[in-house]
Amino acid sequence: MITSTSNARVKELVQLQKKSKVRNEQGVFLVEGVKMYQEIPQEQLVKVYVSETFADKQKEEINRLKDRRKLEYLSDHVFQYVSDTKTPQGILCVVRQSAYCLEDILEAEDAHLLVLDNLQDPGNLGTILRTAEGAGVTGIIISKESVDIYNPKVIRSTMGSIYRVPFVYVEDLKEAIAKVKAHGIFTYAAHLDGKNSYDKEDYTKKTAFLIGNEGNGLRKEIADLADTWIRIPMQGQVESLNAAIATSVLMFETARQRRNQG
Amino acid sequence: MITSTSNARVKELVQLQKKSKVRNEQGVFLVEGVKMYQEIPQEQLVKVYVSETFADKQKEEINRLKDRRKLEYLSDHVFQYVSDTKTPQGILCVVRQSAYCLEDILEAEDAHLLVLDNLQDPGNLGTILRTAEGAGVTGIIISKESVDIYNPKVIRSTMGSIYRVPFVYVEDLKEAIAKVKAHGIFTYAAHLDGKNSYDKEDYTKKTAFLIGNEGNGLRKEIADLADTWIRIPMQGQVESLNAAIATSVLMFETARQRRNQG
Fold first, then answer.
1. Which residue intervals define the domain RNA 2-O ribose methyltransferase substrate binding in the entry (chains A, B) (predicted)?
2. CB of B243 closer than 8 Å to CB of B131
């Protein structure tokens, strides 16, 4: 059992919590909590850290672990030190990052894609990922300036969808959108100045939604690449919706049209 | 100018930030930031506190204030002390609470209501309020155990909709739902066990959605009162959506149906 916060492994865990650079260099990320642990695809599980108290109280969870060499115990004090939450559940895992490539995402038969331009809020990205799985999104393309999907706050909001929804970060979002269009996927910019109400479009064909930053919306040079601009009609004095809310309305309209098709 | 954190007014502001009991006794709440200040209905504005720096830099905002007796200056240090945010904008207002009654909400001609059962997350309630205004919701009925709508975190997420969407807290949610139904408003429980997909219902008639708590959903005794249970069909392994997301999907489906009607 590791009992000191100056242990080299403990220091590394803290780095992995805080720094996306360290996560990406090692090709791993951290998840906390029983549910996130249970849903890890076995081949991606690198290491499981449990607190003393967790080890005492949740023996059956520990017994489920197939490869016991992956298990490491931390004193409660050390666990609290490495945890990202105020009241940790006592289980923290190192998980190998998923490697999706843009080509795979573009070749989905019933493509239903999100293209995220410079999204900054971790809670929004996590909520979008979780909702995307529920709405049947086939892949997410993310500009490299966006918040890191492996940020602990994103992970918490994804509720396990992080393991299942294909996503890819791209260096050049314009180039990626050109490829989306070249694959016969129709691109819609969600834009306050959109001429067409979102519910007047046909999303039963291959569809990608371009979604902008929380404060500023889509960058003009990105929005200009879209085949069509759409807007969500708004009542009252509301100028815009939260990015995760707007994206959800579009995703579930797509799911609705596809269910009711033919 | 108030320069001491032990000033009686400063102490009162801190109490108003932290305690819903104090807010409700005085019938006021606090808002921060220029946008929230600009949107306050004049008759509800009780007092405006600005920091020294704000007073120097944003003279035009201060000049817009009609009744200068409502203005009070705080040193930057004191302002930071009373502010609920890490990087305050330097303007904080005391606003009179709105008084809506249940009867007014029930008599809306095209009633589109939300009934919130024990909602706990301030961000969710704020986002629901903001989205509700955009989707044309006519009123929100909230169980008294729910998070306080005047909690500073709720206020921040509402983006000004707090001033415009009618809402009411009720002691007895069952009794309130009985009244909703007695007014000819059709009640739908958003429920994971709902038999009907939400998009197969007709929301052009008077409609109320019953929305449950983030962790546990609707209490059974509340869900049992609904005319119909509906669900949002979900793909993948997603068990449930975030409460604000699920509510938004229902509200915008209602808005869509009503726009496209007749």
1. 30-101
2. no
**β-strand A71-74 against A45-51: which pairing, if any?**
parallel
pLDDT digit string (tens) for chain A, length 262 residues:
999 999 999 999 999 999 999 999 999 999 999 999 999 999 999 999 999 999 999 998 888 888 889 999 999 999 999 999 889 999 999 999 998 999 999 999 999 999 999 999 999 999 999 999 999 999 999 999 999 999 999 998 998 999 999 999 999 999 999 999 999 999 999 999 998 999 999 999 999 999 999 888 999 999 999 999 999 999 999 989 999 999 999 999 999 999 998 6
Q: How many Cβ pairs closer than 8 A exist between chain A and B? A: 97
Query: Are A259 and B233 in contact (CB < 8 Å)?
Result: yes
The SS3 assignment for B138 reads coil
What residues of A are in contact with residue B253 (Cβ under 8 Å)? 252, 256
Of A134, A159, A236, the CB nearest to B235: A134
A147-157 in b/e form (b: 16+ CB < 10 A) is bbbbbbebbbb
Sheet with strand B71-74: strands edge to edge: B28-32, B91-96, B45-51, B71-74
Half-sphere exposure of B41 (CA within 13 A, CB side): 10
Helix spans in chain B (H): 8-18, 20-26, 34-38, 52-57, 59-63, 76-82, 102-106, 122-135, 152-158, 173-182, 220-223, 243-259
Alpha-carbon span B69 to A75, nearest angstrom: 59
Q: Closest CB to A245: pick one of B233, B237, B245.
A: B245
Q: In Å, how far are A46, A93, A100, B157, B256 from A151, measured between CA atoms? A: 18, 14, 18, 22, 35
Find chain B residues with C-beta within 8 A of A41's C-beta: none
Alpha-carbon torsion angle A92, A93, A94, A99, nearest 10: -130
Q: What is the CATH number of domain A102-259?
A: 3.40.1280.10
Domain ranges of chain A: 8-96, 102-259
DSSP A213: B
pLDDT of B45-85, one tens digit each? 999 999 999 999 999 888 888 888 999 999 999 999 999 98
Are the beta carbons of A210 and A177 closer than 8 angstroms? yes
B102-259 matches B8-96 in CATH topology = no
Residue numbers in A near B249 (CB within 8 A): 248-249, 252
Tokens of residue A206, six digits? 């291959």
Residue of B nearest to A255 (CA): B233
- Name chain A contacts of B235, Cβ cutoff 8 Å: 133-136, 255
How is domain B8-96 classified at the CATH fold level? 60s Ribosomal Protein L30; Chain: A; (3.30.1330)
Q: Do A249 and B244 touch (CB under 8 A)?
A: no
User: How many angstroms separate the CA atoms of A253 and A261, rounded?
Assistant: 12
